[in-house]
Amino acid sequence: MCLLLAFFVILSSVAGISNIKNYYNVGQKQPKEITQLPGLDGKPISKQFSGYVTVDKRHDRSLFYWVVHSERDVNNDPVVLWLTGGPGCSSMDAFIYEHGPFKFSFKGGDDGADIVLEENPYSWSKVATMIYVDSPAGTGLSYSRKPQDYSTDNERTVEDLYSFLVELFTMMPELSYQGFYIAGESYGGVYVPLLASKILNMSRSQRGMPINLRGYMTGNGVTDDVIESAGQLEFAYGMGLIDPLTFHRVQEDCKGNYWDVDSDSACALSLKKAYDIFYWVNPYDTLLDCYLSAQKDEDKMTHSAHKDVVNTLSWKAQLGHTVPCANRRVALKWLSLPEVRQAIHAVPVQELSWQPCSDILNYTINTPVSMINTHKELLHAGLSALVYSGDHDFIIPFTATRTWVYGMGLHELSPYSAWKVDDQVAGFTVSFTSGLTFATIKGAGHMAPQTNPKETLHLISRFLDEFR
Ligand SMILES: *[C@@H]1O[C@H](CO)[C@@H](O)[C@H](O)[C@H]1NC(C)=O
Ligand SMILES: *[C@@H]1O[C@H](CO)[C@@H](O)[C@H](O)[C@H]1NC(C)=O
C-alpha cells in the first residue's frame, strides 16, 4: 500500500517534469543570455548565461548551469567550475550566499518582502569566468525524467559532470581557450579531485575533448573520513568546546578510532556526552548564530535539521540533506519567483521547488572516503592545488585538513607563515614544491566565502594569477 502510494506520487510528479522538455530544452545548442533579473537594477556587469545541459537524452537528465563571464578580462582570465557539496546541495546556494556576482537582501531588512540584488564587490567573477552547476540531477534546479536517476553515486555524478563540460564547451567554445580550474567545498572535496582525474584520464585516452585543466581548489573539503573524525575531536578540544576530562575520556574509550563507531559502544556514549556540551554551537561556523527559536517556518525547518545532525551518534556529522542552523530565506524566496525562473531559463516552480539541499537524492557514498591518493595522482600529473580551510568549521575542520596535507610528506617550497589582506593577518599558508598550497582563513567557517568574502577572493585570486 505504502509502496503503491509512493509510486503514484512519483509518477505524477514525473509527468510534470516530462512536459518541461519541449519548451525549455529546444535550441540548447545556443547559450541563453540573461538580460534582466528580478531585483536587479539594470543589466549584469558582465555577460551571463544560464539553462540546462542534458547529459542523458533518453532520461532527459539535465543539469542546470549559470555562467558568469569574468568582469576583468574575459578573453584571458581563467575559467572556474564551482561545485557545492552535500551530496545534493545546490551550487545556487554558493551563487547567492558566497561568491556570486550579486549580494541578495530583503529590502528594508529581514522582514521585507522584496528582494534586491546589488553588486558583490568580492564576486569571484572579478577575476575569473565562473560556471555554477547543480549536480547531480535531483540537486537544486537539476532534474531527471526518470526518478531512479536520483539514486546515484560518485561514479555516475562524475560521468555526468564530464558530459556536461563537453557539451558546455561545445556550446560555448570561448570557455575552453583559457586555463580551466575546478573548485568546490564540503563534499565538493570528493567531486573536485574525481572530476579532475576523469578529465586527465579522458585526455590521455584520446577519446575525450582536450580540456585545458590547470588545477583545482577545495574549501573545507571532505577528503578522508578517518582523519576528519579524529580532526573534529582535536578541533572541539582546541577550540574550548569540550573540557580536558571529556577529551581524555573520549580518547580512552575510542582508542583512536572515531569513525563509524558502533552505536552501543562506550566510545559512542562518550562521544555523545562530548557532543552534548556544545550542542547549541553552529557546527558549520562556531562564530555564527544558529537559527533556532525564531517563529518563521523556514527557521523551524533549520531547527529540526540541526537536531538531525547533532543527534547522530557517529562523531562525523552528516553532510547531506540539511543546512543546519542556516537561514536561507532570501534564496528560498527568490528562486521560487516565477519571473526569476523565467529570467534564468529554469523549470517553473510548480514542477520543481528549489531546496538548498536535496531531499529526493539517494546518494551512495563508498565509505570510508579517502581522496589522498587521488590528490597525489593529480599533483604528480602537474596540476596545481589550493586547499583552503575556514578555521572555525567543525564539520571539516582545519585540524583534519592540516593532518592529511602534511601527512603526504611533500617538500616545502615556502614555509608556514601568515598571509595578509590590508596589512592584517587573514590566515596562514604553506606551499609545497609539488604544486599544492594549503591555507587557513582566519575566522571563517565551512563556507568561507560567505563570512570572509574579501579574504577568500584575495586568496583564490593570488592562486589563479600565479598560473595565468
Ligand atoms: C537507493 O540506492 C540504493 C543503491 O543504488 C538502492 O539499493 C536503493 O533501493 C535506493 N533506495 C531508494 C529509496 O530508491
Ligand atoms: C583515472 O585513471 C587512474 C589510473 O588508471 C585510475 O586509478 C582512476 O580511478 C581514474 N580516475 C577516474 C575518475 O576514473
From TrEMBL:
Keyword Repeat among UniProt keywords: no
One GO MF term attached to the UniProt entry: serine-type carboxypeptidase activity
Enzyme Commission (EC) number: 3.4.16.-
Keyword list, A-Z: Carboxypeptidase, Hydrolase, Protease, Signal
Biological processes per GO annotation: proteolysis; secondary metabolic process
Signal peptide extent: 1-16
Gene3D superfamilies linked: alpha/beta hydrolase
Keyword Protease: yes
Family: Belongs to the peptidase S10 family.
Name the record gives this protein: Carboxypeptidase
UniProt source species: Chlamydomonas eustigma
